[in-house]
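Note to self: keep these together.
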Amino acid sequence: MTTNEVFLYKREGAYIPRVAAVHDLCGYGKCSLGIAIPVLSAAGCDVCPVPTSLFSAHTKFPVWYMHDTTSMLDAYLDAWQQEGIEIDAVYSGFLGAPEQVGAIQRLYREHPGALRIVDPVMGDGGQRYPTYTPELCDAMAALVDGSDLLTPNLTEASILTGMPYEGQDVDDEYVHRAIDALLELGAKYVVLKGITHGDGLIRNYVAGQDAPVSEVTCELLPYMLHGTGDLYASSLLAAVMAGQSLLESVRFASELVRDAMRITSKQPDFEVRGVSFESVLREVTALVRS
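Structure:
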């Protein structure tokens, strides 16, 4: 089987799938649930947020406040269970504490047929994010086994596998070893993001336990923005839930992030505000209309 033959979700007629989005909510600086909700909604999904923490602003700002929501998650999910809510996919990202892995695993148990998408938001550029302790990273690794789709960048792949982080310019041998190691940890399919070789392109690689490695390239823009990882994972899942193949979904997400980054560069203080995705939502909506 090739990756362009892999379909993780079959869209049935006018049915609107429900996605439990287990992420943080950030007040200023676009990321996490602030991206996942509109992007997946544009793809015709019913997004059911499970907030793992509340932030005043994302952590690239010099001043930010975080509220850990761990203590409320049991009661929150108890209410869902009592209502008999049905979930078609569980999409997890930033976690506020190691104990929150248990809430995601509970969703897996209570919705055994749901697609499991894990974006292991832990760091970038070879560094962990400031709120991520070694204990939280270890807990995040527990979600890899049994995931249908895992979407790490090179930093996160290094944390999960124990392989040394060697920067963004890594060769094919490193890419294959990293993907093999992630698949051996129990992921069914892996998208490894953000490989660059100084040629103006960014490369994302996708492979599975029953599919060889495929490469998707896109233009590399000369600046970094907060929230692009969240936009990538959310738009990738949006395409999957719209019934696109996994390879088509990877290509769609790569191009959507590029388009959003171009628009972002025209905004004031764009380096810190977060990725401006609003004007490209029509591209997501077109997935359902096509």
